[in-house]
Amino acid sequence: MTHPISATTLDDLVPVHELGRDERIRLARSGQVFDIEAGKKLTAIQEYPWIDYLLSGQVCLVSGDKKEIIEAGTLRSCSPLFNESRLREHAVFVTPGELLRLDRQLYENICGIHPPSLNALGDLELNDTEGILLGKLYQACKKGNLSLPTLPKVAKAIQEAMRDPNITSAKLARIVQMDMAVTGGLIRLANSVMYRAAQPIPDVRNAIIRLGMEVTRSAVVSMAMQQLFRSKNPLMKHRMKAAWNRSVHVSALSYVLARHCKGFSPEQAMLAGLVHDVGVIPILDFVSRNHFEVDEDELEAAILKLHLMVGELVVDYWGLGPEITTVVRESGNWHRDEKDAPDYCDIVLLARLYRLNQNETRGPLPRYDEVPAYYKLGLGYPEAEGEQVDVVAEASEELSAVMAMLRGDRG
Predict the structure, then answer these.
(1) Where is the HDOD domain (predicted)?
(2) Shortest CA distance to 251 belongs to which of 228, 218, 214?
(3) CA angle 111, 109, 373 (to 5 degrees)
(4) Which one-letter DSSP state was computed for residue 54?
(5) What is the pTM of this model?
(6) Domain assignment present for 52
(7) What angle is formed at CA 265 by the lines to CA 261 and CA 267, rounded to 5 degrees?
């Protein structure tokens, strides 16, 4: 059970009490109080999206070998329950109590706090195991020795070919035919609900003519990406598969949203959505190749602390351009509102949030139609009947077609 809160609840809480009154009111609107039963365990990693405060009851905070009893109403309970740098902490409710969750991202957005850069990572608080893993990753990144994934052969060839102003559909067709899976996917795309005409397309050259050069480029790069989300390590295989499935869904949602927004290429949005979380690939690959013995929490901590920076390194290495780099860096910042003009980052941000709204119910997550990006993209204005239209729900056939194409489904 949850309860709303008022801004006065934040008056004595560190560090949010330092915010101005209007800012506290805004933060309070995002917060919720949860009734927690005795014996309930909370982990710092699971609670990372929020800043937690104990409002009533007693908890036992465990950090390594140390245990601390925290009681509501004390000075300690006025500070966050978890230290954001110590992601392996956990807390167990000794008695029934109330937990306040505030949106960490909104707080950081209000304060102008940005994700850590490469140079700031050396200041993170780490336990011994995290220190070994993150230290090696950090040094590999800093020295440029991290094994970054290379673009699949067909994707790289398409990128290079598109630099030729005299490129022809026949030459592009020969490149695409290097990969039979991509060839089939491109033909299916040309015959899909988004592009189909009276006559079906039988071959890849005519598919390219129907789609156009730029659409072909984005589609080929996107379809070839599946090759990167693979691992021979059984322990990493399920994580790679989960990351791929998540990326495909966000990619397809980005495509659908871009089709309803003026001035955007749906195929570029599809590519942006597919690589938004690409930073997890080198991290999982690094752990796998170096045979690190890490548990799930330690690996999750590494991903949380490094995936944005590593993702930027990857898309820069691939030469996908500054728009895609911005997507990797900022598409998880739900309250992003620094520019008036919308961009591809706003589209991917909405796609991610839409997916989370549909699939997860944990904590005070903003609705996808409540964030600045929704209105900047022109999606927040009611129809003549006075009701807003869910553009994703209205385009379920398109969504299914794009997901099937990216996954290589035949049909």
Answers:
(1) 148-334
(2) 218
(3) 155
(4) E
(5) 0.80
(6) yes
(7) 120
What pLDDT does residue 312 have?
A: 86
Four-point Cα dihedral 73, 75, 78, 83, nearest 10: -130
Q: Which of 276, 267, 268 is nearest to 398 (CA)?
A: 267
The Cα–Cα gap between 218 and 77 comes to: 51
Same domain for 106 and 119?
A: no
Residue 376 lies in a domain: yes
Helices (H), 114-212: 128-143, 153-161, 169-176, 180-190, 204-211
**Residue 338: how many CA atoms within 13 Å on its side-chain side?**
11
Band of residue 303 on the pLDDT scale cut at 50, 70, 90: confident
User: Quick one: 16 and 140 in the same domain?
Assistant: no
Among 201-210, 212-221, 339-348, the minimum mean pLDDT is found in 212-221
Domain shared by 180 and 33, yes or no: no
**pLDDT tens sequence across 60-100:** 999 988 999 999 999 999 999 998 878 889 999 999 999 99
- Tens of pLDDT, residues 347-357: 999 999 999 88
Picking from 82, 147, 85, the residue whose alpha carbon sits closest to that of residue 122 is 85
Cβ atoms of 187 and 210 closer than 8 Å: no
Percent of the chain with pLDDT strictly greater than 90: 40
Q: How far apart are CA 53 and CA 98, in angstroms?
A: 9
How large is the angle between the packed helices 296-318 and 128-143, nearest 10 degrees?
A: 10
Look at the alpha carbons of 184, 189, 193, 195 in this order and tell me if their dihedral is positive or negative: negative
Q: For residue 397, count other CB atoms closer than 10 A to its CB.
A: 12
Q: How far apart are CA 28 and CA 7, in angstroms?
A: 5
**Residue 247 forms part of a structural domain:** no
* pLDDT tens-place string over residues 19-64: 999 999 999 988 889 999 999 999 998 888 899 999 999 999 999 8
**Does 163 lie in the same domain as 83?**
no
| Together in a domain, 260 and 130 | yes
With vertex at residue 180, the alpha carbon angle to CA 175 and CA 185, rounded to the nearest 5 degrees, is: 95
- Binned at pLDDT 50, 70 and 90, residue 285 comes out as confident
Count of beta carbons in the 10 Å neighbourhood of residue 227: 16
What is the Cα–Cα distance from 343 to 373, expressed in whole angstroms? 9
- Strand-pair partners of 36: 97
How many domains does the chain fold into?
A: 3
| Residue of 289, 304, 254 lying closest to 275 (CA atoms) | 254
